Structures are given as C-alpha cells and as structure tokens.
Amino acid sequence: MVQKNKKIISKTTISEILKKYPKTISVFVDYGLYCVNCPMAQNDSIKGAAEIHNLNLKKLLLELNKAAKKA
Q1: What total of structural domains would you count in the chain?
Q2: 54 in a domain, yes or no?
Q3: Cα–Cα nearest to 13, from 1, 25, 23
Q4: pLDDT per residue over 16-63, tens digit each?
Q5: Could you tell me which residues are beta bridge partners of residue 13?
C-alpha cells in the first residue's frame, strides 16, 4: 500500500503506484514494463514484476521512488 509521504516498497502493487504516482509511467516504460493496461497490474507487486522480468528490484524501487517524489 502506498500512503502519502511513504516510500514505494517491494510489496506495493503496480496499480497502486500508477494511481498514486502517474508520473512513474516513464520508469515502467524504461524498464520494459508496459503495465498501464495490463490486468496483472491490479494484484502484481513490484517485487513480482521484477522477478518475472529479471530486473534489479533495488534499482527499480529507487527510480520509482525518485519519480514519485517529483509528482
């Protein structure tokens, strides 16, 4: 769950992030995660997406949180 002034963490779902921080879309696209219209985004966590796509979770979280702060 994402709350105001809280960090995006590994268990945060993609849909929660996109709803709360729409500017993070560019980070998802940069990583090849085209989750905007994906039905899996409703329940898939960042950790799950990173594992499925062989992505560096720590780096992805860092960039998502950086983009979220700009919002």
Answers
A1: 1
A2: yes
A3: 1
A4: 999 999 999 999 999 988 876 777 778 899 999 999 999 999 999 999
A5: 45
